[in-house]
């Protein structure tokens, strides 16, 4: 795989938001990508970034972007960019990202709008980068076909954390049959200012609109493969389709809760394997700790060096202690034990703003560059 030899100009849409700020922080020191343009709403456009943004990161605003004037999110303002990362609010992401794709830009999005599109890969970069194979078919939908433009989305932040160990387990032990997941989700998952303090301090909110449906559906698209359609398919014989784990139907049930934690989603997971007898807790621990994703083998600079840390302590992982594991790009797992109803249960902790959002998009783009899906 050829690493880029010259900087690749990139832009960020929604650069003033929670995810956008994480993009700016990561991209300011990226070895391949150079921040070229920042976009946000008409409220922010025309103002220097440092004035437009309500900066909430623990590190200062990168010096190189403080005085960069925020642009409107229109493709003409990002013409010199090869890649555009989107942290746009879902209310506006659909139209804006579609316009950028139509203008032949490569878009890596965090928004939900295109996740269910049958031609748009929904990629967790530590799991299913093979789904980039759908891009030529996506580009061929346009007349004339797009040469460089496409959309890749990453998953909902709570889906992302727990599909990493699920994928590691399927790789080691074969298909899963059933998954139960109960989430304890951080406030920052709702963006800024997020849940009102009087609703979340001293409280747990057992409902996050749309979240359970997203986890249950996205898990199947991500863990499933790509299949070739037969002649009866609307796309015609040979067309690629996401198979939604059809060869081994997987039942997923999610229960989502908002908890008074700033960053880091915790998830309590129980799984049932198709294979009998199922692996033991020790075999599961070893498989998770040994897991190395394709993104790491490819040499992606933002991929975690060690993807899953398996804790032996009975009271880990915890958001305050573990959310910055591998700079927020890795996933922490603990309490691996037998489940009396399914087979095995464990706890997952993932940083929702890093691997749950911006870091995933950036690794997706790195893989796409290395696989020559991004033309630059
Ligand atoms: N937070 C997470 O952990 C997380 C994780 C995964 C995915 N996501 C998804 O990522 C996206 C961003 O989330 P967030 O938490 O960063 O939200 P956020 O903090 O509310 O930021 C939203 C961004 O969208 C911009 N925006 C709003 N209206 C716009 C318009 N009309 N035109 C152009 N830009 C506009 C805002 O700009 P202004 O500042 O100018 O208003 C801001 O930069 C959402 O789709 C969310 O569902 C979030």
Automatic annotation (TrEMBL):
Pathway: Amino-acid biosynthesis; L-methionine biosynthesis via de novo pathway; L-homoserine from L-aspartate: step 2/3; Amino-acid biosynthesis; L-threonine biosynthesis; L-threonine from L-aspartate: step 2/5
Transmembrane segments: none
InterPro entries: ASADH-related, Asp-semialdehyde_DH_CS, Asp_semi-ald_DH_pep-lack, NAD(P)-bd_dom_sf, Semialdehyde_DH_NAD-bd, Semialdhyde_DH_dimer_dom
Leading EC class: oxidoreductase
Record flagged with keyword Zinc: no
Reactions performed catalytically: L-aspartate 4-semialdehyde + phosphate + NADP(+) = 4-phospho-L-aspartate + NADPH + H(+)
Enzyme Commission number(s) of this protein: 1.2.1.11
Active-site residues, Swiss-Prot/TrEMBL: 157, 265
Keywords of this entry: Amino-acid biosynthesis, Methionine biosynthesis, NADP, Oxidoreductase, Threonine biosynthesis
Protein name (Swiss-Prot/TrEMBL): Aspartate-semialdehyde dehydrogenase
